[in-house]
Amino acid sequence: MARAASTVEAGDSAERILQILSESARLFATNGYDGTSMRDIAEACGISKSLLYHHFTDKDEIFARIALGSTRELYQFVFDRLPEGATPTERLRAFMVATGEYFQRYRWAWLASTSAFWSDPEQRRQKERMMWRDRYEGLVRTLIQQAIDAGEFRPLDVPLAGRLVLSALNWMHRWYKPDKGMPAPQIADAYFDMIFRGLRAE
Amino acid sequence: MARAASTVEAGDSAERILQILSESARLFATNGYDGTSMRDIAEACGISKSLLYHHFTDKDEIFARIALGSTRELYQFVFDRLPEGATPTERLRAFMVATGEYFQRYRWAWLASTSAFWSDPEQRRQKERMMWRDRYEGLVRTLIQQAIDAGEFRPLDVPLAGRLVLSALNWMHRWYKPDKGMPAPQIADAYFDMIFRGLRAE
DNA sequence: GCAAGTATTGACCGATCGGTCAGCGGCCGC
DNA sequence: GCGGCCGCTGACCGATCGGTCAATACTTGC
């Protein structure tokens, strides 16, 4: 029975599932949700289209797994990298740099998630995903508020300042080329410097 | 005669084309390029699908007209609103506010243009569009460089600073709701204030 | 060796897509 | 009055889509 061999079976199955998710993320990131067919995914994996439906119920589930996974992991990845004893300012810098690092490392999943903004699957299920997204975005607002309370930041429209920070990070995918220019964490750090100190001469 | 969604009874071809472009922009903005079918556009206009092909060669041409038009107009709109005698700093502020104003006024076309980033038509033709986009982006870099030369800005990585400014403006479409909150030009102005002066306490 | 379960496949389905085409009807110049 | 033109239509096409299903290969417990 499958009891004793469950590890092996789960291992085989899990590897295949990981492969499907990985290839799907790459394709979604490159061609968008609607621009990627189940046939494309199957071909990229070197398997039949039917096998996709053996491991996933439908196309939406593949995408949802990628989007939810990357959104949850982004939050945890960034949260784990906030230095505990540091000032809010330094923690905000760490927030931005960690986001850049995550973006660089899991770029396909990031791109896939953000690419489907205009397609249906975004609004449909995705409730749990939005919860993690809200936590992530809440984090930056909390840090900004703490920086204000600590006197490190001047009084600000906190939601708008948060949006400025997130805009810089979230827009990176539209122009960032991994082969050339600065690595993403360094870009994030430079962004922090400009936003924190401002552009004007001192 | 059949009643249309919009009131266009006269057989004027130019008006009909404008109607098609307007409805298409709204649909592309809402559902994306792939998520909008020619049948959808025809239905929204209250006309037959065949008539679309009477006025346009294919779906791509409709989109290209919208995207090129809005990109060119954005540049001209913003360029015309840069105060001539002002300092580079004030001109950069005007650049951002004008972009917010354009975004607010021609939101559907803006959204349609940016939504198709992940679909094919973006890369296909669109050469002329990219020229205007490059001019627009070059403008912000020029203003930043002039501000540095005038001693108003500290020495900066100019392309990156330009990207920061453009990120704030370009990401607005992902969260901006026209019904509530600040109007877009005011948001752009607040962004400028934060980027120029920085977040830190003085 | 056998039964059971799982991974995997190709053939197939209805729906929808972008796009085509022959033709209809009203208006305008002659 | 009439012939050509233009805005306009519905019927239709091949391709592709997401998804289904019955059947096959392989593994594994007994």
From TrEMBL, chains A, B:
Keywords carried by this UniProt record: DNA-binding, Transcription, Transcription regulation
DNA-binding region: 37-56
Domain HTH tetR-type: 14-74
InterPro entries membership: Homeodomain-like_sf, HTH-type_TetR-like_transc_reg, HTH_TetR, KstR2_TetR_C, Tet_transcr_reg_TetR-rel_C_sf
Name of one Pfam family that matches: TetR_N
Gene3D superfamilies in alphabetical order: Homeodomain-like, Tetracycline Repressor, domain 2
PANTHER family for the chain: HTH-TYPE TRANSCRIPTIONAL REGULATOR ACRR, HTH-TYPE TRANSCRIPTIONAL REGULATOR RUTR
Listed name of the protein: Transcriptional regulator, TetR family
Lineage: Bacteria, Pseudomonadati, Pseudomonadota, Alphaproteobacteria, Acetobacterales
